What does this fold into?
Amino acid sequence: MKILITGGAGFIGSALVRYLINNTDDHVLNIDKLTYAGSTSSTESISNNSRYNFEQIDITNVRALKSVFESYKPQTVIHLAAESHVDNSIGSPEEFINTNIVGTYNLLEESRRLWFSLPKKEQNLFRFHHVSTDEVYGDLGYTKKLFTEQTRYDPSSPYSASKAASDHLVRSWHKTYKLPTILSNCSNNYGPYQFPEKLIPLIIKNALSGSGLPIYGDGSQIRDWLYVEDHVRALYLVATTGRVGETYNIGGHNEKKNIEVVTKICNILDSLVPLNHGSYLDQITYVEDRPGHDIRYAIDASKISDELGWVPMETFDSGLKKTIKWYIKNQGYLKKNV
Ligand code: NAD
It folds into this structure.
């Protein structure tokens, strides 16, 4: 199968590209603009494989996209390219509107054009898989509820609103044009090659460099954490065996308060790279909360587990330990990406 991946130089996209090259016979074309968040170092281990190709392309550039679709003729598109950091979306929302909404629209249109030109048999096999987030569902507050695929969209930030808009476009291209689309909405990921603006790599980077460990508000916000390799296994299953027109929620059943996550990181660092005096916990500082900060996200992943047989393989403790060991070994990655 020929798969077009967008955003394959980013955190999750690169994990997916590495998974596809190492575990399947599929051919992969990775298109990525290489923003500050993307790096070809994340795909270096597979970049010489003859089934892998990379092109530096901005998904808001229609002409470049057209040329890629015409020459490569993908059988499946897995769309991950996005501006993904909530704080940036508050300061400068424009790029989020351009990439996340207009970029998705461009990909849908190019996919529709290609799909329409295919013979019936190939049309039936074509898939457009849109990778989205649980943040589109908004805030669960201090309830015991979980996000299901039926939960009403109620995004809080320009980031989540732009992802919600792109999700609506994808569903409408299926309903209106019958383009074979599938959506997945995942909880917070963690693992290697995550840009150190996000909580877990930021805390590891600051801890190792002796800087403050900033916690928004009182640190009581709850997120549902999933190891990135569990996510990419789910993505491949959804793209290859999921039902067309459906949405699959993906999550790790690992709800943790931010302060618990930071405390766990400090405890693991204390045991792996102990300080001469005291603990990494002493570096924690509390900073003013993010505006519109949602209190709790949590995913009900029973549909993907019942229908597609997916379950996460990593617990939060095992995944976090692996992740911290990776960043300790690859401190050059943290230093390069500041
Ligand atoms: P990331 O920020 O690490 O990577 C995004 C990639 O997209 C980068 O390589 C960047 O260069 C590329 N990109 C950005 N704008 C582009 C453009 N205009 N044209 C082409 N490429 C462009 O993000 P991530 O954490 O890997 O997230 C990937 C996807 O998964 C996003 O769609 C995000 O919404 C979704 N998601 C992320 C999480 C998470 O916890 N990180 C959770 C659920 C869903």
